Amino acid sequence: MWRWVTCVALAFVMAIGVAPVAVAAEPNWSGLDARFHDGPIPAPGGLIASVPLEPALSVSGAAAAYRILYSTIDQHNSPAVSTAAVFVPHGIAPAGGWPVIAWAHGTVGLGDDCAPSAQPRSERDDEYLSHWLEQGYAIVGSDYAGLGTPGLMSYLNSTATAHSVVDSVIAMHEMGLPLSPKWAVVGQSQGGAGAVDTARRATEFSRGTGLDFRGVVATGTPANVQSIVKTAGPDMALPAGTGPAANSYTAYILAGLRDARPDIDVNSVLTPAGLDAVGKGETLCKSDLDRALEHMTPTDFFRAPLASLPGIAEALDVYMGTAVSGYDRPIFLGVGSKDTDVPPKLTLQFADQLVANGQDVTLKVYPDADHSGAVLASLPDSTPFLAAQFAG
To answer: Suppose 100 and one of 75, 130, 183, 236 were both cysteines; which one would form an S-S bond, judging by CB atoms 3.0 to 4.6 Å apart?
Structure first.
């Protein structure tokens, strides 16, 4: 049993949040460089600045694109800022305005240069986001607080991610665009977890704004991974074929956790090599970190089990736990059976828990899809699902 759990743990750590996107290029801030923003921060969801997005950073289905800076709340429950990309469909907005999709992105890294709104989109994401634009939705894609803005992006932090996503939708509605108050959230992998976390908190975090949350689509979702992360340590049984991606995700998880919870002495269970790797994780984008840590394995990070830290179990539950009840809108979960990055069982177990708790969930399994492939494979099902939610 122990070996099965630790192998699943490494399968998760190897590629959680994988998005086929290159992020090692020099960032293009579209004239809105917010890395050192030190101005006043309005109430959450306040629009601070908006500029046209550089055309090379847009997607093929957009008639217009913008980069925005807005206010939110970070992992320390403090006022913060985030950036986002906004994409507008072609054509004339319908009566009542374009409905909105908030896009929750997957793992790109924690360094400022990794911010998706400052990098070109991958072919997959261009096709996926363009599909939703062609369906008549406007899109806002948060970078998440700390990614291209002051502070550290809180990797896999349930509450902080939800704040960044919800507040991006609020800020988008201050741009003067013809938008409907109806909106939904869509995400993949790390963003799949973020989308579900957002769905659980969307109505609460947007209360008083006039927005009308309608539902969530999540694919490749690493739900409730904290139960797996708790097994990390020097005696983890590594499956054959463990590669450099495992090291990158270990570094990102630990970097995010120790920043969000300085009261938990994460450093005390790390080796010198682990400390160096986690430090690199705070700045290097995914592909660069893979190369920098290719000589390591995840066991090299630890001199003692993570579980030996007092209070770590509860801290992980708060930091990255996924609620299994309390959702007020329908949930769509898509998973590829050939997903070797995020074990499909995580989604299947999550769906079972939602059903047991009386939640409105639709689960679709794609037998021939892998982790990334589930994104586009889900469109024939997720498109009518969202259409039905917006029609209600």
So the answer is: 183
For 211, how many CA atoms within 13 A lie in the half-sphere containing its CB? 27
Those residues whose C-beta lies under 8 Å from the C-beta of residue 2, and which sit 6 or more positions away, are 237
User: Three-state SS for 97?
Assistant: coil
> Against a cut of 0.90, is the pTM above it?
yes
Domain limits of the chain?
A: 1-392
Q: Which CATH class is domain 1-392?
A: alpha beta
- 244 vs 303: CA distance, rounded Å: 20
